Amino acid sequence: MPGGPPSRRFIRSPQNLVAGLALVAIALFAIWAVSDLPQGTLRIIGPAMMPRWLAIFIGVAGIAFLVAGFTVDGEPLERWHLRGPFFICAGMLLFALTIRTPGFLVAGPLTMLVVGYGTTEVRRLELVLFAAGMTAFCIVLFVTILDQPIPVLNIPGTPIRF
Amino acid sequence: MLDLFANLGLGLAVAVSLQNLALCFVGCLLGTLVGVLPGIGPIATIAILLPITYGMAPVSALIMLAGIYYGAQYGSSTTAILLSIPGETSSVVTVLDGHQMARQGRAGVALGIAAIGSFFAGTVSTLVIAALGEPLTRLALIFGPAEYFSLMAMGLVFAVVLARGSIFKAITMIVLGILLSTIGPDLTTGQLRMTFGIPWMADGIEIAILGMGMFGIAEVFRNLEARTQGDVFHGRIGRLLPNREELARSAKPILRGTAVGAALGILPGNGAVLGSFASYSIEKKLAADPSRFGRGAIEGVAGPESANNAGAQTSFIPLLTLGIPPNAVMAIMVGAMTLHGIVPGPTVLTRTPELFWGLVASMWVGNLMLLVINLPLVGVWVKFLQVPYRLMYVGIVIFCCIGVYSINREPGDIVLLTMLALFGYALGKFGFEPAPMTLGFVLGRMMEENLRQALIISHGSFTTFVQRPLSATLLAAAAVLLVVAFLPAIKRNREKAFVESDA
What we know:
Radius of gyration of chain B: 22 Å
Order of helices and strands of chain B: HHHHHHHHEEHHHHHHHHHHHHHHH
Oligomer: heterodimer
Structural class of chain B: mainly alpha
Largest sheet of chain A: none
Strand content of chain B: under 5%
Number of helices of chain B: 23
């Protein structure tokens, strides 16, 4: 950290500061999201009362963390490693897009191939074989044995539907 | 007393049907299979496997879930011992001596004594559940909304006190959990809250999806940055059964661990977590040579593992009698029961005694299964641990996707899973714990319902919570606990206790 010894830095605990900002943002978002609902009275509580007061509490807590960010020495921000979350989230979103049509036979391998790139240690051939094997294993386990409602293959315009 | 055994007999008659035995067995097996994956604790395991119980009759589904639950518990002890990766907070202490034993080539004995201790603890706590079930149910029937609200408030205060790290952060997390629980339809008017017109948000957030996102996928994110290839188990298991000397050393720790764990497990607000920590420090204090601890002392595995299992089992008591889940795992069980049309609470025992006693008996059967079937299968689980993490996490993610999709057959739920996973990862980066949030999330809905009912009955007056003696007592206990937790001396000790266990 630049700027001399910890006690003289302007921002003394970056972790608290950013956490506080995030909490305040969540609180404002929630308050906005219930702004069109009635709050009711204590006798008959409306739908907005609980969320609104909880959000106000979160907001106040967020401000406390913000203040602590400038006044109390604390943790620095942790490093974020984005490669894993990026590929895994992309893979899962692809699963959501493809699971109904064309079905698991496509969604499964596709998701696994994308998710597998979430680590720098990825080995292409090994991943392809693993994805193929796991796809077969999942179909046998979840569809054949456990009878789960997962579309295996479903191509619109053709009679193919499993 | 005779009643107790007659009831357990009724339960056994339900549990020991061939079909239910088979389900309990498959549950145990699958529970261990998923629970043994590094970083996947009982919460994520149950969430992933929940969908496979959908087509079953309620009794069978619950029996299978009980099997999954114990399998998952045992699976996370296995990774704690072999890989030094605790699947949940309560197996953190198992790592200390269990992993040392494994490094000395005594992995088998550590796993064996864990299973034996857990079985003993499970047997005792099954009897505790059977004995306390009926009286507590009678108590629950005189509870009104005000008492329920106060009891849950007390549970949340317990959870705050027992959470790791800053108390203030834990409180914030609980409130955030309650806020998340208000997403979805309003309980009295049916108006949708914070769903933004998205159809798959209309029912609110499913607890299983929350569990999988925050404890499953988010854990994968964390593991991917921390782990390198070297983390697979290469050692030898060795013999499984402890010898006479090891058994003699373990007998008393198992007894003490069972007592401590069973007592703490009944507390609302995740008392079960304390059990293994408490047992470890008791054994260390009583030992003739405390320096052996942390270097592979078998007492340090036997005691905490027994306490862990005893607590895991008695934490069913508040759930089954009062309908209040005391921790995040039980919260998932509530979700599971609700899916099968069972509302946990006093009515389970009064309306469907065969369900209640069948579940209690199958807990014991599940424990027995673990001992006689899972222990010999240890070699198979070890094979799983030899799969490198670069492939293992791909499997975990696809299991989570399938699990989430089968809950409602709704691709949108997977989008929600993605968001919750990122949220859980971010929480960890800011030093917040997801466990108190999960508890707040589950209790939140019930608390709001009871708060509103209580205020309707009292015509909008908050004094109802202190005028009713039972409710006032519960709130007073919660207040005292919170004040005590903030006392400087206690606060220091509390932080020290958790630091020590992290080492």
